[in-house]
């Protein structure tokens, strides 16, 4: 009999209650404006996403493409953003084939360019409506040893993973604050919790997005905005194919033999966070291959 693979998804989440007066980590600042309830009665994990509007960056492949497809299946109108138009159009064609698929838009965008990101947001709002959800998925990863001084790769990592996320958050935040609702999800990594050798700069970039998200969450408590990081372990995508440092690859990038995650597993975690009722926030999700815990 063929072996049966059993997947274990570790999910760690914090639920934040809405009826507080002082956020415990707000360092003495009281919450001046409590979020307005949606008025919808819902149970955990059942909020409908129908007709929401989302921007997904890094949507041309891997996890971002899977998130785009998953949102489309939920009836979310999705703007697909990344640099490669052909790959984005292919993802969009898949969305169109999904039964009951919502509207979608392809917007070729380099997230390191603030003007392009602003026009991504402007076009999305014009064609799909006000943005409810941002999924920051664009990212790069280079296995490399610090002593090998791949400074261009260090810089690229900071440009895409750190500045790219900042550009996207900066472009959607004013609108979300004005509307008193919005959900910013960033695909971080288990490397945002623990530093992996051979991935020092990548891990630092993911610690950056974790700190950024934590600060944003604390500052926006009481405004109706939710901030989530999803921290995947190994996922079967092309991410590590960018690496050129053979020594680092040999030392640290050898497969463990464990079955790794599929992009759809991570998309499932994103949906889990998005589907929570209005008053509940899933702030972090660590999702890893069962046999590769950090
Ligand atoms: N795979 C894993 O094991 C793993 C684990 C933990 C976290 N993650 C995170 O998951 C995210 C997605 O990675 P993936 O695994 O799905 O790999 P992937 O298939 O290589 O996807 C990376 C995506 O980022 C986009 N991108 C890269 N540079 C960009 C730029 N300057 N502007 C806009 N988009 C850009 C790429 O599209 P274009 O080339 O078309 O621009 C692509 O769509 C990354 O943030 C990664 O750090 C992955």
Termini, distance in Å? 31 Å
CATH class wording: Alpha Beta
Ligands (ions, cofactors included): NADP nicotinamide-adenine-dinucleotide phosphate
| Helix content estimate | 25-40%
Regarding quaternary structure, how should these chains be classified?
Answer: single chain
- Give the total of beta strands: 7
Anisotropy-based shape: globular
Largest sheet: 7 strands, parallel
The CATH topology annotation reads as Rossmann fold
- β content, as a range? 5-15%
Main sheet: strand order: 3-2-1-4-5-6-7
Discrete helix count: 7
Assign the structural class, choosing from mainly alpha, mainly beta, alpha/beta, alpha+beta, or little secondary structure: alpha/beta
Low-confidence stretches: 1-29, 34-44
Give the ordered list of helices and strands. EHEHEHEHEHEHHE
Could you please describe the fold and organization of this structure?
This protein has about 290 residues and is of the alpha/beta class. The chain has one domain: NAD(P)-binding Rossmann-like Domain (Rossmann fold). It contains 7 helices and 7 strands; from the N terminus they run βαβαβαβαβαβααβ. A 7-stranded parallel beta sheet has the order 3-2-1-4-5-6-7, sandwiched between helices. Helix 4 links the parallel strand 4 and strand 5. Helix 3 runs parallel beside helix 4. The longest helix is centred in the middle third of the chain and has 29 residues. It is globular, with a radius of gyration of 19 Å. NADP nicotinamide-adenine-dinucleotide phosphate binds next to helix 1 and helix 4. The site of NADP nicotinamide-adenine-dinucleotide phosphate (NAP) has 30 residues, from helix 1 and helix 4.
